[in-house]
Amino acid sequence: MKKTHVKRASAFVLAALMAGTALAGCGNSNSSSEGSGEKKGDASKGKVYFLNFKPESDEAWQNLAKEYKKEKGVEVTVKTAAEGKYEETLTSEMSKDTAPTLFQVNGPVGLAKWGEYCDDLTNAEIVKNLTKDDFALKDGDQIKGIAYCIETYGIIYNKTILQKYCDSDFATVKKIEDINSFDKLKTVADEIQKNKDKLGVDGAFASTGMDSTSDWRFKTHLANLPIYFEYKDAGVSDAKELKGTYLDNYKKIFDLYITDSTCKPTELASKTMDNASAEFNDSKAVFLQNGTWQYDAISKGKKIKDEELGMLPIYIGAGDEAKQGLCTGTENYWCVNKDASDDDKAATEEFINWCVTSETGTKAMAEKMGFNIPFKDAKTPNNALVAFANTTADKTPVSWNFTTMPSEEWKNGVGAALTQYAAGTGDWDAVKKAFVDNWKTEKAKAAE
Predict the structure, then answer these.
(1) Which of 9, 13, 89, 431 makes the best surface tag, with the fewest CB within 10 Å?
(2) What architecture (CATH level 2) is domain 13-150+330-374?
C-alpha cells in the first residue's frame, strides 16, 4: 500500500457531539471492511502497527504491546509521534508500504481529511462494548472512528498553596470554592502575584509557553472557549465563519496568564511544557492550564500529593460562570486503516477490543495511562484529576469545539499571533485577524 496524497471524505456526520460528552475507545472486530459482518482475515496471522498520538502514554503502550504479544502471540508495534507533530508524522507514515494499521483522527475535521483511509467499523466488536452510541464517529451511515478516552481540562491548582493564600491577611477571596468567575480568578491571581514572596512562589500561573510542546494549550484548548460561547449563542456545532464575539474575553484570560506568571511575557516564545510542568511540580506556580493527562507528570514528580490537587473551569467572563463546568470531550478517535491487509485489519480490531475488555488492557488504560474510557468493562482510572473532575458533574461542561478548527495552519497562525502579542512585537488586532479571517479562509479550503 503506497499513497502519495490524501483524499477527503465526501460527507461526514458525527453521531453526537454533545456538550460535556467525550469520546473514547479501543476496538476489535473480525467484521469485513465493508461492515457486512462477514469475517475476513485471520487475526492470528496479522500484525498491528499503532501510530500513537499521546507522547505521555508511550511507555504504557509499549508495555501493553509486549503483554499482548505474550498473551496472543500477535506482534504489536507502537510508534509515538512527537508533541505537536502527529499530522506531519501520520502523513509521512501513511505514504509508506508498511503504513499504520491503527491511527487517530481528532473529530469531524480529521475525518474529512483522512476518511478515505478509515475502514467501516459498524459491525466491529468494539462498537458493542461502547457505553453509548454517541462515542462513535460517523461518515454517513458508516462508523469510521471510535473515541478511546474521555478527557477534561481546566486550570489545575495546588490546593495547599491556594488555601495558604485564602488564609492570608491580604486575600480578598477566603474560600477556594468562591473562585467561580473570571473576576474572582483575576482577583486571586493578582493578589498571589503581588504577594508571591510571602507565598513562596514565582508567580500565580506556570509559564504560558509558546513553543511547539506547549502552545497547543492556548491556540487550541484556550481558543476553544470563545468558539464554544459563540457556537452556543448561535445554537450551532460548527461554522464556516466566526464573528469573534468573545475574542476580547479570550484576551482577558490570556493577559492574566502572561502577566501573573512565573516569567516575563517576552520569555514565553521559548518556554516549554516541561518548564511549566516543573514550575507547578516544584510549587513555584499555583495554577497550570492543562488537563487530566497532566496527572502522570505530576505523580511521577512525587512532590504534590493527590489530595493537594484541584481543577477550576477556565473562566473568561462569559456565560453563567457560577454554573460553568470544566472542558470535557475528546479528540482521540481510533481508526483502522482500510488499505491494510485483511489479516492485519482483523488483528488490529481484535487488539483494540482486547484493550477495552480484558483485565490486562482495561487495567493498563486506567492505572498506567490514566484514561477514562466509555466502555462497559472500563476500570476507574488511577488519576486524581479525573476523580476531581467527576465531582463537578453538576456543572454545565464546556464541550470540545476545537475539533471543528479548520486546520493546523489556522492553529499555527493563531499561535504565532499570540506569541508576538505576548512578546510585544504584535498587537491583539493581529490575533483577531488570525482567528476570524483565517478561519473563513481555511474552512473554505477544507470544503474544496
Answers:
(1) 13
(2) 3-Layer(aba) Sandwich (3.40)
